[in-house]
């Protein structure tokens, strides 16, 4: 454990940030899984609806610095391509 007051504060703030980042990443993964499930089921309406939510979650995560912006863009692009491929 740290002895210096500022170091103790950094431990607390970094733990708080890590928890928030973990929650956002988890929400993004869930949103992506919902899109994949709708695509696998062949439900175009549900896939498009869940794609909009996933795209928003990915963009927000990138803007907050939780995901790299290229990673976010790549995932959005791949999801978009899979949704568009539904007959």
From TrEMBL:
The keyword Zinc does not apply. GO terms for molecular function: small ribosomal subunit rRNA binding; structural constituent of ribosome. GO terms for cellular component: cytosol; small ribosomal subunit. Pfam families: Ribosomal_S20p (PF01649). Keywords: Ribonucleoprotein, Ribosomal protein, RNA-binding, rRNA-binding. The keyword rRNA-binding applies. InterPro entries: Ribosomal_bS20 (IPR002583), Ribosomal_bS20_sf (IPR036510). It comes from the Bacteria. One of its GO terms (biological process) is translation. HAMAP family: Ribosomal_bS20 (MF_00500). Belongs to the bacterial ribosomal protein bS20 family. Binds directly to 16S ribosomal RNA. This is Small ribosomal subunit protein bS20.
